[in-house]
Known about the structure:
Layout: H1 2-22, H2 42-49, H3 53-62, H4 65-69, E1 74-79, H5 81-91, H6 100-109, E2 111-113, E3 124-126, E4 129-131, E5 137-139, E6 147-150, E7 156-161, E8 178-183, H7 184-190, H8 194-200, E9 209-211, E10 214-223, E11 226-231, H9 241-246, H10 252-261, E12 264-267, H11 269-279, E13 285-289, E14 322-327, H12 329-338, H13 352-360, E15 363-364, E16 392-397, E17 401-406, H14 418-423, H15 429-438, H16 440-443, E18 450-454, H17 457-462, E19 465-467, E20 481-483, E21 492-493, H18 495-507, E22 509-511, E23 523-527, E24 533-537, E25 540-542, E26 551-559, E27 562-567, H19 584-591, H20 600-607, E28 612-613, E29 618-619, E30 628-633, H21 635-643, E31 649-650, E32 657-658, H22 665-676, E33 679-681, E34 693-700, E35 706-714, E36 717-721, E37 727-729, E38 737-739, E39 742-747
Helix pairs in contact: 3-6, 10-13, 15-18
Amino acid sequence: MMFQYSFRYFFVILGGVFTLLSSCTKEELDIYKRPATLEPPIYQTLQSKGNFTSLLGVIDKSGYQRTLSSAGYWTFFAPNDDAFKTYFTSTGLTLAAIDSVKAREIVQSMLVFNAFDQTRLPDYQSPLGWQEARAFRRKTAYYTGFYDETTFEGTKLKAVSLNRPNNNYIVGDNNNKHISYFTSEYFSAIGLSATDYNYFYPNTPYTGFNVMEAKVVNADIFAENGMIHEIDHVLNPQPSIDEFLRTKPQYSVFRNLIEKYASTYALNDPMTTKYANLTGKGDKVYVKTFNKQASSGKFLTFAPNCENFLKNAENDSQLDMWSAFIPTNDVLNQYINNVLLENYTSLDAMPPGIIIDLINAHLFPTTVWPSKFRNSFNALGEEARFDANVDVVEKKVLSNAMFYGTNKVQASNLFSSVYSKAYLDPKFSIMTRILDMDWKNTILNPRVNYTLFMISDEAFKAAGYDYDPSKFVSNIANSEWGYTPPGSTTRTPGTSVLASLQRIVATSVIYTPQNQLGDLSGKGVIDAINGEYIKFENNKIYSTGTKNAPITVTKSKTATNGKVYYTNGLLNFAPNNTSIADPIGKDLSVLGATSDLPYYNFYQYLKNSTLFTAATFAINGVNEGSFYTFFVPDNAAIQAAVNAGLLPGTGSGAVKTPNFNPTSLLDKKIVEDFINYHILNKKVVATDGKESGAMETLLKDAVGDPVKISVINAVGSMQLADATSKKSNVRVDKSNNLSNRAMIHLIDGYLKAN
């Protein structure tokens, strides 16, 4: 029924159409006729205006008359006759002297794909739709194509530039250049002002709609095949960074670093064929890339010859561009000689990755506006450390980047922080590798001070450690790291060795925001960045494994965020350069070895308790890998605890004899609880004044919750309060004894739990 109704209705409508058509003339029936109200194409519109005579002559020579007279979708920034008059005067050219190549260059560089009126130009044409006031660049019809290149080694070849920032090349993408424009909508959205524009173009007033150094004097001239914006200046295509540096000898040192240590040339067969088809010549064509150090994982932040920005989206070049701060030859040479080559004979002698880092310190993966140096960061996470009014000697908006020529080198953390002292010295390559794994980004922070105890490759090797990539074995993780005990020829490789090295290096990194170490000729205790403690006295450094054989400081150097001390050894956690640390119980056995030592009575109770394993010195509940603090009552305090009935003793008088090895289960439990109440669980505290407050012990109450004590900590003193508010003092002269992730203190009283 519905179908019948629809069919009948169709013929009723169709009949009406026939009736209507029968009353129309032939001219009225021409549905392909160009509407009379439609604006003429761009070329004809320019003709009708009367003030684009020179531009039309250039278009004619360029071969673009047909393109701009027919269908299409363009935005054309069109210089008027006054603009060309100025152009001819400044260049010495005439319209007659402009050949077809130059004419195409002029036209293409101002001809933008797609049509945009003034209201749309500031908007980003994203894959998901328009995003307002985010764009300041558009792709033009101009591209470089094939060009003659000379490599750093002097080889001449035919090349094309990369068209993808990740060192890839896509055949068919011409790597078109972009033109930048500056609108009030965009400037307002991102917090810019006329000052940002005039920094680059001091001779052009900012009007709120400028295209490069030109003012738009008549916007939104509609045409059949696009949009025309009349401008008062003839614009030339801008070079990429790669092209720009070729013509600037004052930056040749920086360019040579890129050419020698980053640039490569990859033969491209499809482009070779294309070149042959276009020219009839047999030259091989190479794509210039920047992945020379790919095997080491080092790449330039971006390819200086790529016009396509990140290419995360088809049009992301509308949003952003790169930036480069390039120091002049004199300041860069001075920096290389004084900083990079302090410990190397030449640049060729150092790892090339260092040079890539130096280059990258000056390359920013975003637009750095003149007013936003402090808010723009390079790939290393560093702001642009230049004064826009003092340190910049040349500035230019290029086709793919903002360029700043500078009279100083970026003060990169890589080459100025405490990290740099290891990184730039080949004698500390093992330490640098370990720092890179764990602490590099931490100690690069220029706003926080650190102290670094330098460990040379020689010191690591003397202790039995090595790094040898040639000994990598696929079925053993981290097998390039090895340990050979002194006097042995058996090398143990793998993850456990690497973990030991990481612990040693971490113990050598000290967070010192107020430079607490001060003068190492004094005496003190301080915690490393991994929570372990070291001690220093009279320029000697003590760690858990070197407490009986301290290492000596031989010299020091100052960095921007701290100080480094060079030593004659390593801050090992294991004694005598072994790979296994002594257990805490063993250190206590040494401290309490004889009755004349103040730790003796406590150790006697410990070694005979149910907590202790004599064969291994292990203490039940004290686990390797965790942190602990032992507060050991001195002999007199232990005697007082025995007299008070808190530890087993014999005799009936006021003074009892300690019973170090009781037999009853109750007495054994009393000893166990007493010891546990004198051990802080998972925490190390020293008399450095850093940590105070209620802290958990190993003792548990009836419901299994840890029993706490109070610690009142000051530099050079510490007081403890137990559950009964009874106070004891740390005997500093006999305390701060280093152990395996632990600290052992002697106290003048005992702690009593309720």
